[in-house]
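Human: I would love a firmer grasp of how sequence relates to backbone shape in proteins. Could you go through the record with me and say what the backbone is doing? Here is the record:
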Amino acid sequence: MASLIGAAAAMAAIDNSAEEVAWVVGDQPIWKSEIEEAYQQMLSNNIAINGDPYCVIPEQLAIQKLYLHQADVDTVEVQASMVNQEVEQYINAYVSDLGSVEKLEQMFGKPISRIRQSLRESRTNSSRINMVQDKIVGDIKATPSDVRKYFDALPADSIPYVPRKVEVEILTAAPAIPREEIENVKARLRDYADRVTRGESEFSTLAILYSDDPVSAARGGELGFQGRATYVPEFSAVAFNLNDPKKVSKVVETEFGYHIIQLIEKRGDRANFRHILLRPRVAEKDLEEAVIRLDSLRADITQNDIPFEEAVIALSMDKDTRNNRGLMVVRDRSSENYGTSRFEMAELPQEVARQVNNMEPGQISQAFIMKDPKTNQEIVALVKLVARHEGHRATFADDYQLIKTMAENDQKQKKLEKWVESKIAETYVRIEDGWRNCDFVHKGWIKGNKNSK
């Protein structure tokens, strides 16, 4: 990796800095402030630290720098639009949990713009590291005999407990929004646009006051520099055709509601916009009528022995679950259940989890009101509990796929550890006094030769 000359030059620059350096890996410093920030984030996220944090964290950061250097060597790039989408999903989830952007800023101790920047850097680095690791481990596949050998060698207290999981089908209906309500929303947006055009109001002020998008509203409607792929096609088609920052777009309809958009700045194929989102409100009486209709449908299904799946195909409004005969699938990529139909209870939308908690397999719920996870609009739903898999200690026969995944992950981890050990051996490492008296996972950091202080 970095040569001794390069590392020495980096240290010369670092020694002139007022900020304290804890480690240097190759030509990359690990700052004390960087370690402190990582420590505070782990504490705020309730992440367990196995050992002295001032030993564990810098070693983790050092390993990340080894991977990131390899990413530079291999020219590993991450699609910016994908990172931006993930960042917005994280921020929206945080704001939803905490209740406001202000509380999010208070929790992180920094403005939303810096939170977004930090998350973007973190997600980009994480993705690049994952891509390097995937290349290192290759396509490892455990044979049945490998899996059996791995399982038989597991200590009893290391056999995982498989939490209760459920498989659920869903049928959804969205009450029709009265044309009057839609026209009222459009009229309000056109009025906002006219007020901006006439110079009577600032777009950002109107966004703060009226937008139904809480994250961007807190920033005056600003969305940040994004590419076309970040937005749904209807939004991008209008937004990226704007050229005059003084103009406001026509009203744009998307699955999330109705928008007006203002261009702030373009940079190549990316641009920064402001928008105001208004969502037409579903009338309470219409929701109640939809509940009655779905309860009537439920009675028909149960009395006439109509397959729930057929009703979904014919009537459900959500195309994703409708095309899957109603079966819900885990969409959270961070979940070990991603891509499967087996949900842990905490992974289900809260309203769905409440319904299925006390149901028996084959039962269909009463109609209930829930928030659409994609649009945040109120909808009405029926759910059927397809199967419940009770929590238990994993067995070879019942949980072969889980054990196989564990065996393959074990092989991958050993291969990655071997790679890390080899990179440590050939990399310049300097650990400052006060940071060296640690029981590191990898013993090669303290080399006892001219590569370490």
Summary: The longest helix spans residues 400-426. Confidence is low (pLDDT under 50) at residues 1-18, 449-453. Residues 5 and 380 are 66 Å apart (CA to CA). DSSP finds 16 helices and 13 strands in the chain.
